[in-house]
Amino acid sequence: MIECVPNISEGIREDAVSRIADAVETTGCTVLDVHRDPDHHRSVLTFVGEHNQIEAGAIELVRSSIALLDLRSHVGAHPRIGAVDVIPFVPLDDTTMEACVELAQCVGSTVARRFKLPVFLYAEAARHAQRRRLAAIRRGQFEGLAVRLQSEAWCPDFGPTQPHPTAGAVAIGARDFLVAFNVVLKTDNVGIAQAIARNVRASSGGLPGIQALGLLLSSRNLAQVSMNLVDVSRTGLQAAFDAVRAEAAAMNVGVLESEIVGLVPGAAVGASTTSSLALKGELADKLLEQRLAEAFG
């Protein structure tokens, strides 16, 4: 069993996102969750299946996304390089990371050839040290791809050295569990969110395993600290939330709510509750193990 958690650059048109999710399910994969975010203009799908199903599902996801999405008119708060921005494969049960790396390579080769799409391998599948982190791959975003792909250092692992005209490029990789976790502040000052993000992220000396950005939710006129928890054994949900709340309080700003994007493994939750995280929605509804049990018994 393998989990796939692709991020696509469409968060406004619910019908388009639903059609892409439906296309994935035609391959035998089970879609456990679809998270659509209009402000980020981005959706996160979570689907699971056996190796061959996941391979087919990921390829179908790319095909349907290219048919339905056009980055030339895309504007959103979250950085992106492609209509399908990223496709990570996560081992479940007794699946090995090596199997997911091989899958990332196979899918990358196939979508590059079939759709004329530049592919960067990242995380455990990366062939170059500077490509392990998505932030490095996304630098310059879709708009800067044409120039960047001409650099020898950023020649894609598969595919052409020019962007797909409407779909850009895609990062494909293998990794352990990652938790996408957002905290909404009681302010419209995005500078405060950016300062908090700098203080809590690992690269600035903050919490281990935390990546963070400060963003503006334009539809709500509220600032957000958007985080990835990449090592939940070291920093879980509660520690991340408490750190953001403490930083905000030091700047005389309150926390409105938090949000889990996609699903979260129980190991990241610990003793947290819906209330202790000021969570939007119920924590139990976001548990990966619960969704798997509901889907497969």
How would you describe what is shown here?
- With 297 residues, the chain is α+β, with helices and mostly antiparallel strands.
- The chain is built from eight helices and eleven strands.
- It folds into two domains: 173 residues, Formiminotransferase-cyclodeaminase, Chain B, domain 1 (2-Layer Sandwich), CATH 3.30.990; 118 residues, Alpha-Beta Plaits (2-Layer Sandwich).
- Strands 1, 2, 3, 4, 5, 6 and 7 form a seven-stranded mixed beta sheet that branches.
- A hairpin with a 4-residue loop joins strand 3 and strand 4.
- Helix 1 runs antiparallel to helix 2, helix 2 packs parallel to helix 3 and helix 6 packs across helix 7.
- The longest helix is centred in the middle third of the chain and has 19 residues.
- The relative contact order is 0.13.
- The mean pLDDT is 96.
Explain the layout of strands and helices.
Layout: E1 2-4, E2 7-8, H1 14-25, E3 30-37, E4 42-49, H2 51-68, E5 84-91, H3 97-115, E6 119-123, H4 134-138, H5 145-148, E7 170-174, E8 179-185, H6 190-200, E9 210-217, E10 222-229, H7 237-250, E11 255-261, H8 288-296
Parallel strand pairs: 5-7, 6-7
Antiparallel strand pairs: 1-4, 1-5, 2-4, 2-5, 3-4, 8-10, 8-11, 9-10
Helix pairs in contact: 1-2, 2-3, 6-7
Task: Calculate Rg over CA atoms.
Answer: 18 Å
Can you count the helices?
Answer: 8
Number of strands: 11
Which sheet architecture does the biggest sheet show?
7 strands, mixed
Distance between termini? 15 Å
The average pLDDT value, as a whole number, equals 96
Order of helices and strands: EEHEEHEHEHHEEHEEHEH
Under the CATH scheme, which class of the largest domain? Alpha Beta
What overall geometry do the principal axes of the alpha carbons give?
globular
Structural class: alpha+beta
